Amino acid sequence: MKTEYLDYTSGKNTFESYIAYDDLKSGRRPCVIICHAWAGQAEVDRQTAERLAKLGYVGFAADLYGKGMRGDPTGDNTHLMQPLLDDRGELKTRLLATIDAAKRHPVVDTSRIAAIGFCFGGLCVLDLARCGADVKGVVSFHGIFYPPNLGTQQEIKAKTLILHGWDDPMATPDQVVEVAREFSNAKADWQIHGYGGTMHAFTAPLANAPEKGILYSETAAKRSWKAMENFLEEVLA
């Protein structure tokens, strides 16, 4: 497996992605971008890139905060995330710069790109679908749903899979209904998988704060990964 770091820019900011792919294969292959949780690009995102590489994709772990700007995976990272939640236009700019960086990589098939994201990254990939980014599909793991409100929502072309813990206090059942209505109104091809008895951050092994609605679930993690595999096989065929 070939792994490498790649810098890219957006405006005056420099970002550092992590890329993994099977270097024994020749030619271009589909790419899956990984949008990180609120702590910024972490080891878990790089491991996810490598897992995707083993499935035959280019795994591209994005960096939405900036090179060297990393938080604490078990701490409070509001200071990193909140500025982008407050400025969804800037978040959109950084997301589109990430897509462009992935397209420039010599082994990426530019016609077959998808994006997955976790927590804050789940919101990011939904924003990629909303803004009409050149991606075939997006997968949101325990993401946040509220829309960016950047103008009239155009038709959503990217297929969308939302993987959601039903007991997630950061995305309530009412908000699940709202995001389904939003994507239906935009004529999106969408799916929502709800996991009963499951809280926020269910894919994160270090998540262990049930009093805050945050808890790892091995069962939901396995089920959601398999659902993602099936979805990627469909949209990147």
Structure, described:
The chain has one domain (2-235): Rossmann fold, CATH 3.40.50.1820. It has an eight-stranded mixed sheet with strand order 1-2-4-3-5-6-7-8, sandwiched between helices. The protein has a two-stranded antiparallel sheet with strand order 9-10. The protein has helices at 43-54, 78-86, 88-104, 120-130, 173-185, 218-235, and strands at 2-10, 13-21, 29-35, 58-61, 108-118, 137-141, 159-165, 190-195, 208-209, 214-215. The mean pLDDT is 97. Helices cover 34% and strands 26% of the residues. The chain has six helices and ten strands. β7, α5 (173-185) and β8 (190-195) form a beta-alpha-beta unit. It is an alpha/beta fold and 237 residues long.
The SS-based structural class is alpha/beta
CATH class: Alpha Beta
Mean pLDDT: 97
- Going by CATH, the homologous superfamily would be Alpha/Beta hydrolase fold, catalytic domain
Separate helix tally: 6
CATH architecture term: 3-Layer(aba) Sandwich
* Overall tally of structural domains: 1
Number of strands: 10
What integer value in Å does the Rg equal?
A: 16 Å
Which residues form runs of ≥5 with pLDDT under 50? none
Backbone shape? globular
- Strand numbers in spatial order across the main sheet: 1-2-4-3-5-6-7-8
Q: Profile the largest sheet.
A: 8 strands, mixed
What is the CATH T-level topology?
Answer: Rossmann fold
* Content of β-strand: 25-35%
